[in-house]
């Protein structure tokens, strides 16, 4: 019984430590290191995020402002991101444009396999490119405006994740409290399981407490999920 209590307390401590580490990790996502420098300890670059795609859009705007062609623009971007996972899809986009594919189609074809948020930013890049070509607007200005809007969206999602890190950690910790209580009771010599299972009132208390715990966890997860989903306006 004492060994069981020790294991329960150790598991709770480990869970609490993992929850507290979420906030620094989320804050670190906004650093200014290159994607290759933000690789994992084994040296393998991490999957490109939406902020990396925003950087590509800003770089595209700068290159187009100095007169780069679509092919040379993406070829330069592919070389600039050669050390991370954006390099291969950008190289394929440049190659497709060189072979005569329109930029919007090339972008959508070769960036769709990236993570969802990253692919969504590239989809906006393709749409902006198409709008600029069909309307005659200055492509550099359009992409600069798109980059700013996408950057604001990335910052908003990061702030949301940071704000929800605390509630998520609280849900995890509160879910473990009943087991921690049983472990502490065992440490002081109280056989709480016998009390809870030895009489109808104890069994009813345990069943009601378990039901309320599961209901509370479900409700909290539902609220957290609602906070991460886009809200649609009502007519």
Automatic annotation (TrEMBL):
It is a multi-pass membrane protein. Residues 59-182 form the Type II secretion system protein GspF domain. Pfam families: T2SSF. GO terms for cellular component: plasma membrane. Keywords: Cell membrane, Membrane, Transmembrane, Transmembrane helix. The keyword Transport does not apply. The chain crosses the membrane at residues 173-194, 201-220. It is found in: Cell membrane. Its main location: membrane. PANTHER family: CONSERVED TRANSMEMBRANE PROTEIN-RELATED, INTEGRAL MEMBRANE PROTEIN-RELATED. This is Type II secretion system protein GspF domain-containing protein.
